[in-house]
């Protein structure tokens, strides 16, 4: 018999906005809002849990695990936590602080000497805290996992080649590689893998026995598939590879299990039988550490908070006079968000299986309003309008790019002279081959593949093999020798190797 998604509701008498207890009718209306929002954003499947006063108020699965198949999402269905994993890594770090094995202000070089940055001063001054708050001056380096498959230690060695985007501790730019470094430091201190230590110190005490440190640990098939809009059609796509060091975003969990984590983090890290962190360490994690810019999240355009800060693994801002702690998680085709309203002891977690479906933000603020602060603002519609506008801006930018193409130009050299091997100490290697009148690009042993046609002059443009990656742009530079000197492939520069 086919199973259906079932609501698992726990109605706990408590006083929300207007000092009225939450009624079954309010729960039903919230449930209906969530489902309507899911459909409004075309998300195939979602799961949500809402906790208040250390109890689960509401949890439910919606839609399907995989488009075109009947298997429903339920509260046991596993989804990617993605970057909400970062708060778990920070908590492990906090445990080591409590045990005297680590200090937030220890130099990173004490534990990870192979992590070298372009400025020796920054390498020397880089603290554990800096790894966790995105203030190092080093911009995003996701190409180290998206465009290549290399060991974490090799990533750390290559960081010396990355030019800073802004001065040390003078800005904010999201940095996954440094959370990978945090995971490696944990491993060196405890003598266990990050994954095993996470299971031992967080999942097992909290009873999160269905939560996996990485997708590769999952043993059953009640897990979602990722989805992406390709040419305006939502399709199932491949899972991304499990990262060697998953401390930046590899955990998978379910609505049932993640509820326990949400409650624990709201209640000063307490759980049945103990607490994960000392009260002062838990407080330090949620203490504002730096600022994040308004453009980090388009939602800030509508929310217009008075302040925006980042703690240790948590974004923060004010909302209706209250402090919000939150973090999103995004992998290709998968989304997550965790949100806290600490002074109301209210928390929410939303999983989704459609790439960057920002209904997650809408449901977080709806939860805060509905179960604590009052108001009936339709966040889903407002944010849908916002993100639809951004999508249109993206389409116009692509149209402008196409419109600016210089027609009737030709490449400088015969196509076969662009063929060959290209290397970079930072980006690895690229191989260009010729099939017909198109160039085939193979970056880092098939980590990226694209087939590009001539666009203009010595520029080529075309689709990635994995359609959800979009299109690639390759530009060749012909040197004074009359031969190809360098290749810039989607921003990564490679030097052509001489053939003898």
In brief:
By secondary structure, this protein is α+β, with helices and mostly antiparallel strands. The protein contains 13 helices and 23 strands. The strands form five sheets. It has a nine-stranded antiparallel sheet with strand order 1-3-2-15-14-13-12-11-10, sandwiched between helices.
**Percent of residues in β-strands:** 15-25%
Helical segment tally? 13
Q: Work out the radius of gyration.
A: 24 Å
The count of strands amounts to: 23
- Please report the distance between the alpha carbons of the first and last residues: 67 Å
Identify the CATH class of the domain at 8-79 and 209-394: Alpha Beta
Shape: globular
> Which structural class should the secondary elements be placed in?
alpha+beta
Average of pLDDT: 94
Low confidence ranges = 1-19
The share of residues in helices is 25-40%
Largest sheet: 9 strands, antiparallel
Strand order of the largest sheet: 1-3-2-15-14-13-12-11-10
Tell me the CATH topology of the domain at 8-79 and 209-394.
Answer: Beta-lactamase
CATH superfamily of the domain at 8-79 and 209-394: DD-peptidase/beta-lactamase superfamily
Label the CATH architecture of the domain at 8-79 and 209-394: 3-Layer(aba) Sandwich
Q: Can you put this structure into words, describing what you see?
A:
- The chain is α+β, with helices and mostly antiparallel strands and 500 residues long.
- Among the domains are: 8-79 and 209-394, DD-peptidase/beta-lactamase superfamily (Beta-lactamase), CATH 3.40.710.10; 415-496, Beta Barrel (Lipocalin).
- Helices cover 29% and strands 24% of the residues.
- It has helices at residues 24-40, 86-98, 120-125, 128-133, 143-146, 152-158, 176-190, 194-206, 255-266, 279-285, 300-303, 359-373, 379-403, and strands at residues 8-9, 45-52, 55-63, 79-80, 227-230, 233-236, 252-253, 270-271, 274-275, 290-291, 308-310, 315-319, 322-331, 334-341, 346-352, 420-424, 428-435, 438-443, 448-456, 459-463, 471-478, 484-489, 492-496.
- Strands 1-3-2-15-14-13-12-11-10 form a 9-stranded antiparallel sheet, sandwiched between helices. The chain has an 8-stranded antiparallel β-barrel with strand order 16-17-18-19-20-21-22-23.
- Strand 14 (334-341) and strand 15 form a beta hairpin.
- Helix 2 (86-98) packs parallel to helix 7 (176-190) and helix 12 (359-373) packs antiparallel against helix 13.
- Residues 1-19 have low confidence and may be disordered.
């Amino acid at each position: 018999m086919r199973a259906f998604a079932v609501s698992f509701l726990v109605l706990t008498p408590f006083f929300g906005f207007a000092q009225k207890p939450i009624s079954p009718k309010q729960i039903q209306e919230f449930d209906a809002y969530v489902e309507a929002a899911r459909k409004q954003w075309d998300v195939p499947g979602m799961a949500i849990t809402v906790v208040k006063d250390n109890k689960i108020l509401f949890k439910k699965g919606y839609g399907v695990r995989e488009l075109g198949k009947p298997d429903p999402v339920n509260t046991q269905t596993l989804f990617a936590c993605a970057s909400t994993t970062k708060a778990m890594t920070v908590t492990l770090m906090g445990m080591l602080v409590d045990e005297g094995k680590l200090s937030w202000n220890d130099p990173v070089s004490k534990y990870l000497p192979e992590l070298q940055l372009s400025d020796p001063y920054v390498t020397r001054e880089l603290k554990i805290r800096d790894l966790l708050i995105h203030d190092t001056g080093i911009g995003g380096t996701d190409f180290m996992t998206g465009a290549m498959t290399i060991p974490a230690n090799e990533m750390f060695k290559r960081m010396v080649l990355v030019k800073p985007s802004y001065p040390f501790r003078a800005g904010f730019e999201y940095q996954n590689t440094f959370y990978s470094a945090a995971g490696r430091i944990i491993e060196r201190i405890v003598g266990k893998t990050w994954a095993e230590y996470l299971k031992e110190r967080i999942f097992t005490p909290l009873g999160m026995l269905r939560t996996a440190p990485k997708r590769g640990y999952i043993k059953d098939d009640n897990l979602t598939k990722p989805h992406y809009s390709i040419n305006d059609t939502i399709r199932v796509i491949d899972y991304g590879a499990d990262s060697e060091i998953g401390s930046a975003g590899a955990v998978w969990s379910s609505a049932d299990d993640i509820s326990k984590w949400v409650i624990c983090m709201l209640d000063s890290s307490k759980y049945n039988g103990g607490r994960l962190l000392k009260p002062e360490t838990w407080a330090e994690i949620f203490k504002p550490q730096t600022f994040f810019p308004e453009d980090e999240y388009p939602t800030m355009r509508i929310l217009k908070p008075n302040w925006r800060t980042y703690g240790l693994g948590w974004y923060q801002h004010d909302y209706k006079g209250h402090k919000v702690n939150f973090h999103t998680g995004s992998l290709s085709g998968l989304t997550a968000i965790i949100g806290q309203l600490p002074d109301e002891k209210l928390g929410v977690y939303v999983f989704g299986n459609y790439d960057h479906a920002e209904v997650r933000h809408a449901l977080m603020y709806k939860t805060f309003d509905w179960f604590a602060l009052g108001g009936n603002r339709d966040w889903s519609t407002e944010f849908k309008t916002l993100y639809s506008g951004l999508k249109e801006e993206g389409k116009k930018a692509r149209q402008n790019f196409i419109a600016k193409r210089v027609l009737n130009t030709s490449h400088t050299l015969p196509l076969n002279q662009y063929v060959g091997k290209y290397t970079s100490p930072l980006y690895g290697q690229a191989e260009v081959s010729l099939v017909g009148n198109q160039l085939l690009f193979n970056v880092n042993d098939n980590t990226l593949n694209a087939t590009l046609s001539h666009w203009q002059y010595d520029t080529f443009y075309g689709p990635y093999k994995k359609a959800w990656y979009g299109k690639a742009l390759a530009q060749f530079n012909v040197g004074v020798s009359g031969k190809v000197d360098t290749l810039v492939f989607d921003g990564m520069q490679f030097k052509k190797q001489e053939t003898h």
